[in-house]
Specification:
Oligomer: single chain
Order of helices and strands: HHHHHHHHH
Largest sheet: none
Helix content: over 70%
Structural class: mainly alpha
Length: 227
C-alpha cells in the first residue's frame, strides 16, 4: 500500500468517526427536524384540502339558498343565508350577507334591507367591490323608499366620471330627483348618462325616455347648470 493510499484511508476513517460523532450527538434534532418538515408539508396539504372542502360545502349551501329564493321560499332562504353568513367559509359569508339583504327587500322589508346593505358597505373587512355593490343596492332601494338626500348620501360619490357603477348611480340619482320633483337636477343626471359614451344601451335608453318626460314638464337642457 502506498503512502498516499494509507493517508487517504486514515482521512476517510477520521471523516467517518467525525460523522458518527456528529450523528450520535445531533441525530435526535435531525430526525425531529425532518419529521417536522414532513409533518408540516402533510399538515399544509391537509389544511388546504380541509379548507377547500369546507369552502365547497359553503358554496353548496349558498347555491341551495339561492334556489330556495328562486322558488319563492324567501323565509327559508333567509334562514339558510343567516346561518351561512355566521359559519360559512371563504368569501361565502360576505356573499350570503349581500344576498340576505336582497332577500329582505324581496320579502317586503326594504328598511331592513337598506340597513343590511349599509352595514356591509361600512364594513372595511369586506372587499371593496362587494361594499360598492351594497352601497349601490342601498341607494337604489331608497329611490322608492327614501328621500333624495338619502339616495345622494350613498350614490353621489359613485357617480363620478370613471367610477365603475357611475351609470347606475346616476340613474338612481336622476330618478330620486324626479320623484322629489327636482326636475332640473333630474335632467342633469340623465344628461350625464346620455353624454357618457360608455353608458350601457339600456341605461341610455331609459335616460332618453326620462328626458322626454322632463321636456313634457317644460324642463330643457339649456335651463340647467353643471353642479
Amino acid at each position: 500500500m502506498s503512502d498516499d493510499s494509507f493517508i487517504r484511508e486514515v482521512e476517510d476513517e477520521l471523516r467517518s468517526d467525525k460523522l458518527n460523532t456528529f450523528w450520535s450527538k445531533y441525530k435526535v434534532l435531525i430526525i425531529g427536524g425532518a419529521a417536522a418538515i414532513v409533518l408540516g408539508t402533510a399538515g399544509k396539504q391537509g389544511w388546504d384540502y380541509w379548507q377547500n372542502s369546507v369552502s365547497a360545502a359553503s358554496g353548496d349551501r349558498f347555491i341551495e339558498a339561492v334556489e330556495l329564493s328562486n322558488d319563492g321560499k324567501h323565509d327559508e332562504a333567509i334562514s339558510a343565508l343567516e346561518a351561512l353568513s355566521g359559519d360559512g367559509s371563504g368569501q361565502y359569508p360576505a356573499l350570503a350577507k349581500i344576498r340576505l339583504a336582497a332577500e329582505y327587500a324581496k320579502n317586503g322589508d326594504p328598511e331592513k334591507a337598506v340597513e343590511a346593505f349599509d352595514t356591509i358597505s361600512d364594513d372595511t373587512s369586506f372587499d371593496d367591490s362587494l361594499r360598492n355593490v351594497a352601497r349601490l343596492r342601498s341607494g337604489l332601494l331608497l329611490v322608492d323608499h327614501g328621500s333624495y338626500d338619502q339616495v345622494s348620501d350613498r350614490l353621489l360619490s359613485m357617480a363620478d366620471t370613471g367610477k365603475s357603477f357611475r351609470h347606475s348611480a346616476r340613474e338612481g340619482l336622476g330618478l330620486a330627483a324626479w320623484k322629489a320633483k327636482d326636475y332640473k337636477q333630474a335632467l342633469i343626471w340623465f344628461q350625464a348618462i346620455i353624454d357618457d359614451i360608455q353608458a350601457p344601451a339600456g341605461v341610455r335608453e331609459r335616460a332618453n325616455i326620462m328626458m322626454q318626460l322632463l321636456a313634457g314638464q317644460g324642463v330643457k337642457p339649456e335651463e340647467t347648470q353643471e353642479g
